[in-house]
Design a protein that fits this description.
There is one protein chain. The chain is of the alpha+beta class. Helices cover 52% and strands 18% of the residues. The chain contains 21 helices and 22 strands. Strands 10-22-21-20-11-18-19 form a 7-stranded mixed β-sheet, sandwiched between helices. Strands 2-1-3-9-4-7 form a 6-stranded antiparallel β-sheet, with no helix packed on it. The protein has a 6-stranded antiparallel β-sheet with strand order 12-17-16-15-14-13, sandwiched between helices. α2 crosses α4 and α7 runs antiparallel to α9. The longest helix has 37 residues. The radius of gyration is 33 Å and the shape is elongated. The two termini are 30 Å apart. 48% of the residues are buried. It binds adenosine-5'-diphosphate (ADP) and magnesium ion. Magnesium ion binds next to α11. The site of magnesium ion has 7 residues, from α11.
């Protein structure tokens, strides 16, 4: 509990005890009024203050205003009737404050929960200086610095391991509890915890660009993007509150006037003013106003616990209506780790060809490039390479030791006007050209991710109607993967712009109520991530551009998480609608009962706090996503 919450608890207890004590002291008249005003002010002074300020700032119709008018009115009525019954006004304030306290506790708890889950912010980095370890601010560590990560410490900055072996706990990032092995040469992302061995890491990014900083930014900004349901609620409150205020006014004046003028009865002002005040207490829309954002907040928190980062509640809403899921192939459904299967039609030594390929690819971040680097197996001397050009969806060209090299697919050879020899083997073909002459091709193949088939089935089970795969790879490799995974439609040989076009076609062919999600790793497909109704990126392997362009980031690159994200969003939205219907329903009934004089102010406040507590508890359910 925070200090503020403790203070409120003390106020509540003080006022409650005073109220009980006063109820057994038989004082009358002015003394009674003064004595009762003490607990009233103890419990309600901030509300009254807020209401006065609201009126001053011309923002009259808020909850504080409703509570202030209702309770001051009740006190005034008691004075006028000489009944001395001030208990009701105090009790109404008391319960309102209990509700507020509960709500602030619940919100604080779920916020804390999320930051606890996201307890990945590193406080320092270790640097070795004169044989001693020195702790420095991670912000001050430049790219290329070697940092030391001891067992038990968080990895502060993204980099490559240069020395040491260890196991890493990535659960805070991915929700995956199995530890991962790490050794020299492996890339390592910030935010995971080094468990067993000492690691020396050469940083490849600055702290601000590292995975941890990116993720924390994401999570911190998530709540500022409002969904349509939330906008609906704030619009609703803007119309609703003034409406009930005028309604209450009408209830206070019209019936007495009608009784007097038309029916010739006594006006019975007290009854109708009391009903109007009750009406005001009932009308407080707090349950709605608080539980809707809280539900989304909990949904986002639950998702991040499972390693799924959702950048805003609007995306949860879109996700819940996803009917088409479009996948990128390489790196998304497949591992993006290619093995060299063969080298055909090459006039030169295989080693030489691989060396040329690895060198010319040395600047590319495409999975193909990384695989060729691995096949080459030696460190790349970048000074041997000049004029590198990467042509998205085609390949790369450049000069190695002054020799013109091109490495890429059919399209690259076509655009360079170099005749090439096709290949019958299954797999991805990388044609090579040396000094403008064809130099054979390297056949590489990629394996589908272990959960890819399951992922496609899980989507179907979650109500997704169509799965599509887009790839820049050739038709043969594409069809094979699609068949293996049970994907409905495949489009191959696409350049990045072609992928955008296809997604636009698919967007047009679906009804506006159903949504399309694109899942990619961001290498060559960041524009598509932005174009789809919802862009889902692979966070661990994906490029920074992807994480930026995407609306949802999957921390562990597992395509199975897409279906999980959809299920989480559905649960969250179900809770949101339950709360809306429940809160508005109970409100409506109570308002009618209040106007008819059946509900007293007591009942009204009980109903209000009760609805709020139930709605908040229901909202918190969205945090639990483990077994979805
Ligand atoms: P996908 O859509 O499956 O993710 P990309 O659009 O990234 O594939 O790439 C499409 C094709 O373009 C690859 O299959 C490959 O033939 C070629 N290509 C792209 N980048 C490179 C590269 N760096 N080196 C060689 N070929 C490349
Ligand atoms: Mg790709």
């Amino acid at each position: 509990m925070s200090r503020k919450q403790k203070k409120m608890l003390i106020r509540i207890l003080t006022a409650a005890v005073m109220l009980i004590v006063l109820s057994v002291i038989p004082v009358k008249g002015l003394a009674r009024f003064v004595l009762y005003m003490i607990p009233y002010l103890v419990i309600g002074y901030d509300i009254l203050w807020k209401a006065v300020n609201g009126v001053k700032n011309r923002q009259v119709f808020d909850e504080s205003f409703l509570m202030a008018v209702a309770t001051v009115g009740a006190v005034a009525l008691a004075v006028y009737e000489k009944s001395g019954d001030y208990t009701e006004a105090i009790a109404v304030m008391l319960f309102y404050q209990i509700g507020e306290l509960f709500q602030s506790y619940a919100v604080g708890k779920s916020r804390r929960n999320i930051s606890e889950l996201m307890d990945i912010r590193p406080d320092y980095a270790n640097i070795e200086k004169d044989g001693k370890l020195e702790r420095v601010d991670p912000d001050e560590v430049g790219i290329g610095t070697v940092i030391i990560v001891q067992p038990g410490e968080k990895v502060p900055i993204d980099g490559v391991i240069v020395e040491g072996t260890s196991t890493l706990n990535t659960s805070a990032l991915t929700g995956e509890s199995l530890p991962r092995d790490a050794k020299a040469g492996d890339e390592i992302i910030s935010g995971c915890i080094n468990m067993t061995g000492l690691l020396k890491v050469r940083t490849t990014k600055e702290f601000g660009e590292s995975t941890v900083s990116k993720i924390l930014d994401l999570v911190e900004n998530a709540s500022s993007r409002k969904s349509r349901s939330e906008e609906f609620i704030s619009k609703f409150a803007r119309i609703y509150t003034p409406a009930v205020c005028y309604g209450a006014l009408a209830l206070a004046f019209l019936p007495p006037v009608v009784r007097m003028a038309a029916l010739g009865l006594s006006p019975d002002w007290e009854t109708w003013i009391y009903r109007a005040l009750t009406f005001l207490v009932i009308s407080c829309p707090c349950a709605l106003v608080i539980s809707i954002p809280l539900s989304f907040f909990a949904g986002i928190g639950g998702a991040s616990k499972a390693g799924i980062l959702v950048k805003g509640s609007n995306y949860l809403e879109t996700l819940s209506r996803t009917k088409t899921v479009v996948f990128d192939k390489t790196g998304t459904l497949t591992q993006g780790v290619f093995e060299v299967n063969g080298i055909h039609h090459s006039p030169m030594e295989n080693e030489k060809l691989i060396e040329y390929a690895a060198l010319v690819e040395s600047a590319s971040s495409h999975p193909i490039s990384r695989s060729l680097q691995r096949a080459y197996g030696k460190p790349v001397d970048r000074s041997r390479v000049q004029d590198i050009r990467e042509i998205s969806g085609k390949g790369v060209t450049g000069k190695v030791d002054g020799v013109e090299i091109a490495a890429g697919n059919d399209k690259l050879m076509d655009s360079l006007g170099i005749p090439y020899i096709g290949c019958h083997s299954a797999g991805t073909i990388i044609h090579m050209a040396v000094n403008g002459t064809y130099a054979g091709h390297i056949v590489i193949s990629d394996a589908v991710k272990p959960h890819a088939r399951e992922a496609v089935q899980a989507l179907k089970a979650a109500g997704v109607e169509k799965t599509v795969m887009l790839t820049g790879d050739g038709q043969k490799a594409a069809d094979q993967v699609a068949r293996e995974l049970g994907i409905d439609q495949v489009y191959s040989g696409l350049l990045p712009a072609g992928k955008v076009e296809k997604v636009e076609e698919l967007l047009q062919s679906q009804s506006p109520a159903s949504k399309l999600a694109f899942v990619g790793d961001g290498i060559n497909d960041a524009p598509v991530l932005g174009r789809a109704d919802i862009g889902i990126a692979m966070g661990a392997m994906g490029s920074d551009a992807a994480i930026e362009a995407a609306d949802v980031v999957l921390m562990d690159d597992d395509p199975l998480q897409v279906a999980k994200a959809i299920r989480i969003s559905r649960k969250c939205l179900r809770i949101v609608y339950q709360n809306i219907i429940f809160a508005i329903g109970v409100k409506g009934i109570c308002l009618i009962l209040g106007a008819l004089g059946i509900a007293s102010m007591w009942l009204a406040i009980f109903a209000d706090v009760g609805v709020m507590i139930l709605a908040v508890l229901n909202a918190i359910r969205a945090l639990f996503v483990k077994n979805l």
